[in-house]
Automatic annotation (TrEMBL):
<feature type="signal peptide">
    <location>
        <begin position="1"/>
        <end position="25"/>
    </location>
</feature>
<dbReference type="InterPro" id="IPR036908">
    <property type="entry name" value="RlpA-like_sf"/>
</dbReference>
<dbReference type="InterPro" id="IPR049818">
    <property type="entry name" value="Expansin_EXLX1-like"/>
</dbReference>
<dbReference type="InterPro" id="IPR036749">
    <property type="entry name" value="Expansin_CBD_sf"/>
</dbReference>
<protein>
    <submittedName>
        <fullName>Expansin EXLX1 family cellulose-binding protein</fullName>
    </submittedName>
</protein>
<keyword id="KW-0732">Signal</keyword>
<dbReference type="InterPro" id="IPR051477">
    <property type="entry name" value="Expansin_CellWall"/>
</dbReference>
Amino acid sequence: MKKKIITFISTIVLTILCFSPQASAAYNDLHKGYATYTGSGYSGGALLLDPIPSNMEITALNPTDLNYKGVKAALAGAYLQVEGPKGKTTVYVTDLYPEGAPGALDLSPNAFRKIGDMKDGKINIKWRVVKAPIKGNFTYRIKEGSSRWWAAIQVRNHKYPVMKMEYYKGGKWINMEKTDYNHFVSTNLGTGSLKVRITDIRGKVVKDTIPKLPENGTSKAYMVSGKVQFPN
């Protein structure tokens, strides 16, 4: 009887492990997939990270990995260390690879060339999220049309991917929804400066203040310099 119970429990544990791989997956686990290459992603990408220097090594990321743990565009602006047949390089996530399978990247040609042969067109790769090779504090992009009544705010220049953004109003923190186009959106944000709380993919939290938003919708997007950065 005891042996049957042990066998039954072991079966349950194995079933959980086999059918719930994402439950224990860490953000910086090693991913395996394939890479293709494209010349797009420097402007007009789905994640609205323009302008991007034309010599930067970038990638589009498949939807499964981009939307980590169900958060839209979670890995937007992340840096990935990628290894292919010829070596390693680090790329910046600027776009969506809509038809890509889990693990797949669509690299810029300068990145693909470093880790594989261009003539192959498609190569096997391994990659993981790494700390961004950046300096300074956050930068915020306030999307066109934003006002105190409705605003879309993007966080840039972050050491690790941004999962959550909240603002403080009426004595409580209010969650902002992250969108497919890599902005956090909310309504009725108030008339004064905006106190925000930002959480990265590791669960690290920092607080900052954004100058008050326009009374009416701004006709153009504009940038605001932040005063904080995620810890190492």
